[in-house]
């Protein structure tokens, strides 16, 4: 082993002369899964920045590769092991050169499989769960001393209290939109889902911590924040006087953060969509008219077997209430086809549900049996070809709805948040209030501004627009 690469520069030397540090380490973080993993990857980057690591987009120059993994479907979990096979070979090459190369597995596969990962992939140095990643620097130190670390306890301390705040220049480099986790875990126990096991029970971050983080983001130039939670609308806390407050209250408070222009939140469960939250969509212009509200299936029999705890009719009635509060709201959803016992008739009910709601966007999946979930033990698993055929039919319908929604936007004048340079010089990509990507002629110096544009056309995954007047700042 070439020892000098693994000894960090003394803190005072680093502070005075950062460029002279011979051994600034680089971490490459690969993120799988949902938006919360995207957020967690940035916060793991923060935890490692405190140890002198900088993040790199180039795996070839990394001293540490961290896989932030997803366990939701079998395929997602399998990807991790094939990536680990490739990393093992890289580690061998690096060892031959005498260079440090560490491998960490974080996220939901880490939580679900723990020790098993090290058994199957001995090249892994550290396995760390979603609730303990603030301890990543410690785990790496132990691993450098030859210990294989598996840290997947549910930490008693709050990881957010222990993570260093993201540096302003790092926030800026990440763009003008940001995720902010406000709630983690799930107590719903849908019978197909691993999340209650990988993320633990529902925990809400305190309001003060969230407002502080939002202010820091905005201060660094962020204009749009998406609040994240596995069940974000189950967020619950107390105000200063000991009164119970919910997600609606949090949104009203965030709406007052100076400089913040747009708010979104995801993912919601229909059971936790209360009247105050629906009214927030009516009252708050800062709250974008887009709601991801998964239903999973249209048949009451299947909804019951999934333990979703509402009927199809209740979901449709809920959407009607949301639409009367905010008529221009775009609905999005998730669907699973081929849950055990799903008949042709049940599937037709899903199609009918989709017809009735008319989604602006949606995600749909074939049921994947997950060990340890109640669904795995149910009888009548659906044949793979039947799942494939149902998924194709469902996706054709959802894609048509999405395309129709895009077409219905043509001719409209909308506010566009300019986010990043487009593919063509002179073009910038922005987001519509309904989360569509929109290409427009603008200067990259305008990124972060909200401009008024008219939609003039649609492409396969985006819209085209022209500016209509001089800038309107919000
Ligand atoms: N908390 C969110 C969903 C989190 S998982 C909610 O309650 O809606 C994201 C999506 O993955 C789910 O909405 C579901 O559609 C899908 N999913 C979860 N488990 C799955 C499984 N075992 N097989 C296929 N899709 C699954
Ligand atoms: Fe999974 Fe259901 Fe919880 Fe969503 S609500 S995370 S689908 S168990
Ligand atoms: Fe996957 Fe975990 Fe998110 S299982 S979907 S990364 S909560």
From TrEMBL:
Q: Record-annotated residues binding [4Fe-4S] cluster 1?
A: 34, 70, 108
Name what cofactor the protein needs. Answer: [4Fe-4S] cluster
Q: Which GO terms describe its molecular function?
A: 4 iron, 4 sulfur cluster binding; metal ion binding; tRNA-2-methylthio-N(6)-dimethylallyladenosine(37) synthase activity
Report whether Ribosomal protein shows up as a keyword of the record: no
All copies of the MTTase N-terminal domain together span: 25-145
State how the cofactor is bound. Answer: Binds 2 [4Fe-4S] clusters. One cluster is coordinated with 3 cysteines and an exchangeable S-adenosyl-L-methionine.
Chain ranges of the Radical SAM core domain = 172-404
Stated EC number for the protein is: 2.8.4.3
Q: Which Pfam families match?
A: Radical_SAM (PF04055), TRAM (PF01938), UPF0004 (PF00919)
- Domain TRAM intervals: 407-469
Disordered: region residues: 1-20
- Keywords, alphabetical: 4Fe-4S, Cytoplasm, Iron, Iron-sulfur, Metal-binding, S-adenosyl-L-methionine, Transferase, tRNA processing
**Could you tell me the superkingdom of the organism this chain comes from?**
Bacteria
- Reaction it catalyzes: 2-thio-N(6)-dimethylallyladenosine(37) in tRNA + S-adenosyl-L-methionine = 2-methylsulfanyl-N(6)-dimethylallyladenosine(37) in tRNA + S-adenosyl-L-homocysteine + H(+); N(6)-dimethylallyladenosine(37) in tRNA + (sulfur carrier)-SH + AH2 + S-adenosyl-L-methionine = 2-thio-N(6)-dimethylallyladenosine(37) in tRNA + (sulfur carrier)-H + 5'-deoxyadenosine + L-methionine + A + H(+); N(6)-dimethylallyladenosine(37) in tRNA + (sulfur carrier)-SH + AH2 + 2 S-adenosyl-L-methionine = 2-methylsulfanyl-N(6)-dimethylallyladenosine(37) in tRNA + (sulfur carrier)-H + 5'-deoxyadenosine + L-methionine + A + S-adenosyl-L-homocysteine + 2 H(+)
- Provide a GO CC annotation, any one: cytosol
The answer, when asked if Lipid biosynthesis is one of the entry's keywords, is no
Q: Where does [4Fe-4S] cluster 2 bind?
A: 186, 190, 193
In terms of one coarse class, where is the protein primarily found? cytoplasm
The record's listing under InterPro entries reads: Elp3/MiaA/NifB-like_rSAM (IPR006638), Methylthiotransferase (IPR005839), Methylthiotransferase_CS (IPR020612), Methylthiotransferase_N (IPR013848), Methylthiotransferase_N_sf (IPR038135), MiaB_methiolase (IPR006463), rSAM (IPR007197), rSAM_horseshoe (IPR023404)
Q: Where in the cell is it found?
A: Cytoplasm
Task: Give the family from UniProt.
Answer: Belongs to the methylthiotransferase family. MiaB subfamily.
- Function according to Swiss-Prot or TrEMBL: Catalyzes the methylthiolation of N6-(dimethylallyl)adenosine (i(6)A), leading to the formation of 2-methylthio-N6-(dimethylallyl)adenosine (ms(2)i(6)A) at position 37 in tRNAs that read codons beginning with uridine.
On subunit structure and binding partners, the annotation says: Monomer.
Q: Which NCBIfam families match?
A: miaB-methiolase, MiaB/RimO family radical SAM methylthiotransferase
What protein does this entry describe?
Answer: tRNA-2-methylthio-N(6)-dimethylallyladenosine synthase
Q: Which organism is it from?
A: Aliirhizobium cellulosilyticum
Gene that this polypeptide is encoded by: miaB
């Amino acid at each position: 082993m070439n020892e000098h690469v693994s000894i960090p520069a003394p803190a005072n030397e680093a502070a005075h002369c950062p460029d002279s540090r011979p051994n600034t380490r680089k971490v490459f973080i690969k993120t799988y899964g949902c938006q919360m993993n995207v957020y967690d990857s940035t916060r793991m980057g923060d935890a490692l920045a405190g140890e002198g690591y900088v993040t790199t987009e180039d795996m070839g120059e990394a001293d540490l590769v961290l896989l932030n993994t997803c366990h939701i479907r079998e395929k997602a979990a399998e990807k991790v092991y094939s990536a680990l096979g490739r990393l093992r070979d890289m580690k061998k090459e690096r060892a031959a050169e005498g260079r440090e190369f560490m491998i960490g597995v974080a996220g939901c596969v880490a939580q679900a499989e723990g020790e098993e990962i090290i058994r199957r992939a001995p090249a892994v140095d550290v396995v760390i769960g979603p609730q303990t990643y603030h301890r990543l620097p410690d785990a790496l130190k132990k691993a450098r001393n030859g210990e294989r670390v598996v840290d997947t306890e549910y930490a008693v301390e709050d990881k957010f209290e222990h993570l260093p705040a993201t540096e302003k220049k790092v926030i800026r480099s990440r763009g003008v939109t940001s995720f902010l986790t406000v709630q983690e875990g799930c107590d719903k126990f849908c019978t197909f889902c691993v999340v209650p096991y990988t993320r633990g029970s529902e925990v809400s971050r305190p309001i003060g911590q969230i407002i502080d983080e939002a202010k820091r983001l905005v201060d660094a130039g962020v204009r749009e924040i998406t609040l994240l939670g596995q069940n974000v609308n189950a967020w619950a806390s107390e105000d200063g006087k000991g009164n119970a407050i919910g997600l609606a209250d949090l949104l009203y408070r965030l709406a007052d953060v100076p400089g913040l222009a747009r708010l979104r939140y995801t993912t919601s469960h229909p059971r936790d969509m209360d009247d105050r939250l629906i009214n927030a969509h009516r009252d708050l212009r800062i709250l974008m008219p887009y709601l991801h509200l998964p239903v999973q299936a249209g048949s009451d029999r299947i909804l019951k077997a999934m333990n979703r705890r509402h009927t199809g009719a209740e979901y449709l009635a809920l959407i009607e209430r949301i639409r009367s509060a905010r008529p221009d709201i775009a609905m999005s959803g998730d669907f699973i086809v081929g849950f055990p016992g799903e008949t042709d008739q049940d599937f037709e009910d899903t199609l009918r549900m989709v017809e009735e709601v008319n989604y602006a966007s949606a995600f749909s999946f074939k049921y994947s049996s997950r060990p340890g979930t109640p669904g795995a033990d149910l009888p009548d698993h659906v044949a793979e070809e039947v799942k494939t055929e149902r998924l194709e039919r469902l996706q054709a319908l959802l894609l048509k709805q999405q395309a129709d929604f895009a077409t219905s936007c043509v001719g409209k004048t909308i506010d566009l948040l300019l986010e990043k340079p487009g593919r063509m010089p002179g073009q910038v990509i922005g987001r519509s209030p309904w989360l569509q990507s929109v290409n427009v002629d603008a200067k990259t110096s305008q990124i972060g501004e909200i401009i008024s544009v008219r939609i003039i056309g649609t492409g396969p995954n985006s819209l085209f627009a022209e500016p209509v007047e001089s800038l309107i700042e919000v």
